[in-house]
Amino acid sequence: RLGAYQEALANLERARKICERIGHHADLASILTGLGNVELLLGDYASAIRRQDRAAEILRALGQRRRRAATLGNLGLVCLRLGETERALALQEEALAAARKLGLRRTVLLNRWGIALARIALDDPEAAREQVRLAAEEIDASVAGLDDVAGPDAREVWAGLFDVGVLAAVQLEDVEQAFQFMESGRARSLLD
Fold first, then answer.
1. What's this model's pTM, rounded to 2 decimal places?
2. Comparing 13-27, 50-64, 153-167, which segment has the lowest mean pLDDT?
3. How far apart (Å, rounded) are the C-alpha atoms in residues 116 and 139?
4. Which of 7, 18, 73, 145 is the most buried (most CB within 10 A)?
5. For residue 93, how many other CB atoms are within 10 A of its CB?
6. What pLDDT band is residue 107 in, cutting at 50, 70 and 90?
7. Rounded to whole angstroms, how far apart are CA atoms 28 and 109?
8. Please, are residues 47 and 36 in contact by the beta-carbon 8 Å criterion?
């Protein structure tokens, strides 16, 4: 049920205990990520960071580089909300490098947004604009093969990415780039 965060926390906490007891580490990492996401929604950023940190460590130990790259990006966004801007930037850059190496287009784009937001927080708008520009180039290159990139839910995934691009461009006061993201998203939806 939507909005039942306390119930979700209780269920995830029960699942966490079971996974720890039976030594199911891959599932434990997923559950910790879920707990962190719910805690983030509830505004408990410190707990969210602890959960995401632990999930990233488990994934590193298991050699699950794809999932770890996404988890590092999530952790970077939580750190940004807590004002840990330098750490957020470092996490986003580490996640970006891993995602690029693994060919994870969506994760690359999300990390570029995360880096742009961290650069805004560090009062470095030029570096933030460069990340948004690079992300826009990658979106343009990727749109042609959209269904191959993200499966049947591709339109929703890419619509979300266009939305994030608009938000990042607006925060950078780059009206032209914001307009380009809006038009690209609108054009894609009309094609569908």
1. 0.73
2. 153-167
3. 16
4. 73
5. 16
6. confident
7. 26
8. yes
